[in-house]
Structure formats: C-alpha cells, structure tokens
Amino acid sequence: MKKIGILHGKERSFPNAFVQRINEKKPAGIIAEPVSIDKVIQGGDSGYTVIVDRISQDVPFYRAFLKNAAISGTAVINNPFWWSADEKFFNNALATKIGVPVPKTVILPSRELPEDTSEESFSNLVYPLDWESIFNYVGFPAYMKPFAGGGWKNVYKLHNMDDFFDKHGETGQLVMLLQEEIVFEEYYRCYCIGGKYVRIMPYEPRNPHHLRYASDFKPSAERYKLMEDIVLRINKYLGYDFNTVELALRDGVPYAIDFCNPAPDAERTSVGEENFEWVVETAANYAIERAMNWKEGVDNLTWGEYLKRSVEKLPLS
Prior knowledge:
alpha/beta; Dna Ligase, domain 1; 4-stranded antiparallel β-sheet; 10 helices; 12 strands; about 20% strand
C-alpha cells in the first residue's frame, strides 16, 4: 500500500480536507494520512511514497526528516533541498534572466553583525555602501522586507532616505531587500500546483488580511493568459510543485512581486470557499498522480529548469 502523507503545523482546514479528499477518491493501492514520525534514522525509509510539506520552513527538524525521506525515494512536495537553498533575492535575479518583469531590487547586509562575527568578518564589504546609487536605482517610495521568510513580517514602506535609515535600524540581524514600489491597478495571487495547474485569484493586499481575497479585478482573456504564462515559467525554472506567485499589474504589465511561497496560505477562512475547493481537489489529484508515477530506488523529487540547465551548461533563455 502506497501512503501519501501531509506534514503540517497548526493549520487544520487544508490538511484535513486534503487527506479526506484523497481517501474519498479511493485510488487503487493508495491511502492518505497526516505524517507520523516516531524516529528518524539515517538513510531510513520514511514509510511514505509522497509527502506534502507545509511546515518545514519553520521546523529545522522536519526539514532534516524530509531530506532523509527523499534520499530513500519519497516524493517530497516541495523538494526540500531546493527549498533550503532558495530565497527571494535569488528569485528576483533569476526572473531578470528568464524575461519576467520584477521590481528594481537590491540586497542589503544586516544592520547588526551576525552572531559569532566581528567587523573583521566583513573586510570585503565597503562601508558605507554606495547609498546614493542604491537609492537612485530603486527610488522612493520603496519597500524593505527580509530576503528570506514569508508572510508580511518585518515589511516596511519607506518614503525617503531618512525613513530608510530609521527603519533599517530596527531590523537587527535580518538581511533585507530594498525594492521599488509598484503602484498597481490590479493585483493577483496565483496558485501553481505540479508546474501545470494554475489558479489566478484576484487579491487586494491593501485590505485587512481576512478581506484580501474580496476583490473584483476581472482580467481579460489575453491578460489572464499572459499571467498564466508568467506563473508557469517561474515555477518551471524554480521547480516548485506547490507555490504561489503574486503579480501586480502596472500599466498592463504583470510584475512578479513575491514568488517564493512554497507553503502558501490555503485556509478556507482566508482564501474563500471556491479557491479552497480548487486547491484541495488539485493538490489531492496531483499527490495521487505522484504516487502512481513513483519509482522504487530512484530520486522522485522535482528539479527545476534552472538547476537542470546549469548541470547541462545550457543558457537560461
């Protein structure tokens, strides 16, 4: 019997519905359940054919467990090795090479020295940085946010240079991005599952959190296709099985604002009933597909086009 497991934290609506949906479908020789871990032995079989990961970004022990499971052939959604290596600044840099519009963005060293370092640890870093060139490139207003991490934690809107230095002083040891503000007419949050299934959801980030999906943007068929193509291209190169891409439309051009969300919000109360139904059904079907296509004794992970082209020494575009 092949087992599909879901590894999750405090969320309940999506994990419970995901397990229930798969078991209701009664796929031959496949069952689903929440992952259960009572020990992790090096090189040991996890007992699961497929695991959907919703929490390892916050629990290092789980990330180690998933890598160990992957070595033994488990198809982990998403690839824990790539997820460990990825971050938002790299995503933006990659986007510039594959023809996806993104805001002008720079990365900044942490305001405070990381633990176990001293000023001598940064002898290769010019200080002060070339702030004039940085500010001229990005412009104001701008946003500052962590280069790694999710949600809206530690995100600042900055209006001028003095505002930047004031707020940067609050960021401690966080490595931050400084990013051009895209003043948008429309905004969309887009699920992408399996690198092929896309759900484009109107989204209003300026609303309170519980009302962000309560927006009435209505893209034309042409614009919908343009956004779908961007979402598919991004996930093709990154190799994520489950991700969301946020697109802000300025003058009709979709700018990818945030597309490193491998454990995106899928709670019924926030995404709404229709979006919730889509993500449960699509994720369940995709997990079953991965279980049916699983092969013993081989790597069953998804690897993105960026890594595959790097190995084969092929250009990105």
